[in-house]
Amino acid sequence: MKIKKKGIIIIILLIICFFIHFFSINAERVENNYSTNLYPFIAVKFRILLGWISFSVGDILWLILLIFLAKKLYLFFKFIVTKKRRILNHEIAIQTMYSFLVFTTFFYISFNVFWGINYNRQGIARQLDLQLTPYSLNELKTINRLLVIKINESKQILIKNKTVYPDNQKLFVMTEDAYKKVANKFPFLQYHSRSIKQSMWSWVGNYTGFLGYYNPATGEAQVNTTVPKFTQPFTACHEVAHQLGYAKEMEANFVGYLAAASSADTVFQYSVYTDLFTYANRTLYFADSSAAFYYRRLLLSAVLDDYRERRKFNLAHTSFIEPIFRSAYGLFLISNQQPNGILSYDEVTGFIIAYYKKFGII
Fold it and tell me: Cα–Cα distance between 138 and 141 in angstroms, integer?
């Protein structure tokens, strides 16, 4: 391929990248034209195409991409360190730069067209007309108290009914049912053509700290099904929220809450309230550590046992990889409209408080 032709291709790709960036600047434009029109069409088609397959196609694609990149890097460094380095000339340097630019721009375009533009939407706060104003310490304490009540009530029901946590497939069906129920109240949360899969890389997630993830290239939601059972229902609801176009983590947490809390299954209610309490109580701890400890002590001993199980699981899978992974992912979140990085997950507390102030329920 001649250099001139390569240059034209790069210019076209860069123009597309610029157009995506320009389009994404306006949140209202993104909300009305992409997030509630084009994206749902793309996402549903992906789910129809791949949702019926029992395994995660996206996980396999990631493996193929990893092998491809590893091979390319190996061949590149092999070329550098062998005698062939003497023929490393201007043409080879241009070809290497061209391949890098094509790959990165194509990845940027694909990621954003298939999903990433949703990071710039107005989102669930606009759809529910929530007032996300700064909340007071008393409001934060109120939410902690209400969450404790919800957690204890749901745990007592689970104990009384001797509830057994569902297997993976039943869990995914129950997640779909939860969204059907919440859609009766909020039609824009309708979820069609289920595509929730067990992650093939759960063992990696145990050492890097992820509970689930969404693959924009295939429209699949993956859940780590090796972690403590009581955490999985909310994780599944969180990942479906990503499928519905809520890219920011605090929004996916909140939409996942709306679905799980609406579920008729107590395992979902218990799962979401224990998770929300973790965020709300941690936020309270930074403002008033004594109050945070006070609300923790109000939890039933059986609830504390579940928290201990999760902590024990995390400690058993401690590795040097997790802080590196968390830092890298934090930078990714910061670059996508979430300035607090990993702590963006905790911001769901503000959404819960705003929702409670408007609707009087959690």
Answer: 5
